[in-house]
Amino acid sequence: MQANIIISKATKTLSGTIQLTGSKSECNRALIIEALSKGKVKVLNISDAADAVTLAAVLKVHSPWSIVHSQAVADREPSTIDRQPPTMDHGPSTMDYVDIGPAGTAMRFLTAYLPLLDKNIIITGTKRMQQRPIGILVDAMRKLGAKIDYQVNEGFPPLQIHSGFQQKTDRISIKGNISSQYITALLLIAPSLPLGLTLEIEGELTSKPYVEMTLAMLQQVGIQHTWDDNNIHIANQPFKETSILVEPDWSAASYWYAIAALCDEAELFLPALTPYSLQGDSVITEIMANFGITSQFKDGGVHLQKEAKPILRKIFDFKECPDLAQTVIVVCAALGHDATFTGLETLKIKETDRVAALQNELAKIGVKLTEKGQVYKLDCSEKQIPEKVTIRTYEDHRMAMAFAPLALVVPQVEVEEPQVVEKSYPAFWSDLEKAGFKVDGYSIA
Ligand SMILES: O=C(O)C1=C[C@@H](OP(=O)(O)O)[C@@H](O)[C@H](O)C1
Ligand SMILES: C=C(OP(=O)(O)O)C(=O)O
């Protein structure tokens, strides 16, 4: 465990260039595609995000092809994978064991992918991962023909995946309002299923841009689909020989937008980000325009600039960009901007209950986030700025990164368990230092 760090910033100004790591979402999709394509598709600009590193290491061992598929992957230590002795429960075959830690997308994508490998594998994750629901996806995979058992609690990891997958149907109906990751997981394996797959999405679809990202990436590698009303269809079809270039992570960029929004003056360059991103979180450019941040795409990246202007927007919806919720809510709190938020339903089943975590930590500066049905209101009327605030991170990278910008308002922000940022943005603290923040107690592990 790492010691707490204390963040401070002498001036409310920001300048320079920050090179962000690759998108965890794009990279995790690309890695699964690379594996299923048996190396026909290569991944370029693999992300440093721990979740992507872990998934790459798992796929290095558990892949339908034996060639070591990319040097970057080959160099990584599969530290989370152990071959266990056979267990009595699963007959004579070897039971492999995969621990994907806190990586939600990796857990969901592997739950669809691993049954295709004809192996016996237990897949588990952190204590929190064992509380993140997966029943909807397991039910869908069972209907498709996978043999999956729950090891401890019905509906939650760890899962025992057994060999012997045989596709039983080409049509699955699946709820869309809990996590889009279940849908992405199924779409990623669809072209490799002998009968292809038609997915009927029941009810509303949450986090829709992530499903669009999946389909766009599949299209890039030659996989066609149709999407009519609620039905997405992908036939069995081959991947084309090509590469996928992972873009920098727009969710990571959001913290720099937040910092800029809390500065008096800001001019920052984020290379390689484009306005045509597959990542729905690129909508941060529009959201932050309300806080005076202009985004100019030139020189092969985006230039952020701060203009003083009144904040007029009062309602923000995060249904299509849930990972931006903490960033924007903390900015509103720091600026004392009372606002209303919707689309936060899925936040309760992410790395932590993010609504409860936000409520607890915002209370430390006297800001209330109240819940009425599906509408959340921020009340800054009793906001008070202490000399120092200590932020709990609840094993959630986004709690650490969303609250760090508060150092522009509170003289000292202490962050507990700062290593959580490794999940998606390992260089976050060193990038803050580069940008002129003082980060005391920080050491690269
Ligand atoms: O598909 C993806 O890469 C993701 C989908 C979203 O999850 P939900 O679909 O569960 O909202 C998002 O919160 C997560 O960080 C990444
Ligand atoms: C929810 C997230 O990740 P995951 O579901 O992949 O753990 C996130 O990165 O905010």
TrEMBL record:
3-phosphoshikimate binds at residues 24-25, 29, 179-181, 207, 323, 350. GO terms for biological process: amino acid biosynthetic process; aromatic amino acid family biosynthetic process; chorismate biosynthetic process. Phosphoenolpyruvate binds at residues 24, 104, 132, 181, 354, 398, 423. It is found in: Cytoplasm. Pfam families: EPSP_synthase. InterPro entries: Enolpyruvate_Tfrase_dom, Enolpyruvate_Tfrase_sf, EPSP_synthase, EPSP_synthase_CS, RNA3'P_cycl/enolpyr_Trfase_a/b. Keywords: Amino-acid biosynthesis, Aromatic amino acid biosynthesis, Cytoplasm, Transferase. PROSITE patterns: EPSP_SYNTHASE_2. The active site is at residue 323. GO terms for cellular component: cytoplasm. Pathway: Metabolic intermediate biosynthesis; chorismate biosynthesis; chorismate from D-erythrose 4-phosphate and phosphoenolpyruvate: step 6/7. Its EC number is 2.5.1.19. Residues 10-432 form the Enolpyruvate transferase domain. GO terms for molecular function: 3-phosphoshikimate 1-carboxyvinyltransferase activity. It catalyses: 3-phosphoshikimate + phosphoenolpyruvate = 5-O-(1-carboxyvinyl)-3-phosphoshikimate + phosphate. PANTHER family: AROM/DEHYDROQUINATE SYNTHASE, PENTAFUNCTIONAL AROM POLYPEPTIDE. Belongs to the EPSP synthase family. Catalyzes the transfer of the enolpyruvyl moiety of phosphoenolpyruvate (PEP) to the 5-hydroxyl of shikimate-3-phosphate (S3P) to produce enolpyruvyl shikimate-3-phosphate and inorganic phosphate. Monomer. HAMAP family: EPSP_synth (MF_00210). This is 3-phosphoshikimate 1-carboxyvinyltransferase. It comes from Mucilaginibacter paludis DSM 18603. The gene is aroA.
